[in-house]
């Protein structure tokens, strides 16, 4: 279902478990920080809304979305987080570079989910233009960061990781 028909921040809060005993790693890209900052704010606010403690939300920056896989991998190898959320925004330019960055991150995060026993949540915006990114990072179509926070909480609860 397209985001236009399902706001990214719409969910039934009664279906979301308490996150007070959960620990989260968030990797966020500096590229398009006007967008990724909004994604991060939404994710943290939503995690805390459902009980997550400040000290249990660890955030790390990476320069660009292509580095998100490495950041997530480091969380998985070196920390005791229960889930990792990656947040980035790739906006199409004049060359095929967009396709390669998006495909690389998607494959990298998919591989981590396949090989790790902790979920890595896919918070990558891949948009045609800046307005589409604005709309999905706290704008009229909601906030992808909110969606990722809820997904992380549910995955930890569903699989008891
Ligand atoms: N054009 C965008 C990039 N490009 C940078 C890459 O992600 C990467 O950091 C670089 O290729 C060095 O490895 N990154 C974004 O996050 N968003 C873009 O729109
Ligand atoms: C996703 C990108 O790297 C892209 O924004 C770069 O822009 P361009 O393809 O015009 O070099």
TrEMBL record:
One of its GO terms (molecular function) is 6,7-dimethyl-8-ribityllumazine synthase activity. It comes from the Bacteria. Pathway: Cofactor biosynthesis; riboflavin biosynthesis; riboflavin from 2-hydroxy-3-oxobutyl phosphate and 5-amino-6-(D-ribitylamino)uracil: step 1/2. 5-amino-6-(D-ribitylamino)uracil binds at residues 31, 65-67, 89-91, 122. It is an enzyme of class 2 (transferase). It holds the Pfam family DMRL_synthase. (2S)-2-hydroxy-3-oxobutyl phosphate binds at residues 94-95, 136. GO terms for biological process: riboflavin biosynthetic process. Keywords: Riboflavin biosynthesis, Transferase. Its EC number is 2.5.1.78. GO terms for cellular component: cytosol; riboflavin synthase complex. InterPro entries: LS, LS/RS, LS/RS_sf. It catalyses: (2S)-2-hydroxy-3-oxobutyl phosphate + 5-amino-6-(D-ribitylamino)uracil = 6,7-dimethyl-8-(1-D-ribityl)lumazine + phosphate + 2 H2O + H(+). Belongs to the DMRL synthase family. This is 6,7-dimethyl-8-ribityllumazine synthase. The gene is ribH.
């Amino acid at each position: 279902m397209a985001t236009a028909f399902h706001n990214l921040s719409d969910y039934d809060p009664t279906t979301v478990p308490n996150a007070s005993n959960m620990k989260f790693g968030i990797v966020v890209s500096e590229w398009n920080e006007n967008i990724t900052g909004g994604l991060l704010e939404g994710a943290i606010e939503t995690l805390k809304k459902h009980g997550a403690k400040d000290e249990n939300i660890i955030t790390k920056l990476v320069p660009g979305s292509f580095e998100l896989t490495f950041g997530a991998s480091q969380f998985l190898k070196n920390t005791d987080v229960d889930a990792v959320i990656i947040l980035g925004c790739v906006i199409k330019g004049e060359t095929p570079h967009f396709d390669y960055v998006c495909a690389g991150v998607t494959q990298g995060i998919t591989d981590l989910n396949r090989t790790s026993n902790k979920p890595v949540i896919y918070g990558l915006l891949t948009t045609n233009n800046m307005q589409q990114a604005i709309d999905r990072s706290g704008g009229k179509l909601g906030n992808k960061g909110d969606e990722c926070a809820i997904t992380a909480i549910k995955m930890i609860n569903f699989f008891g990781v």
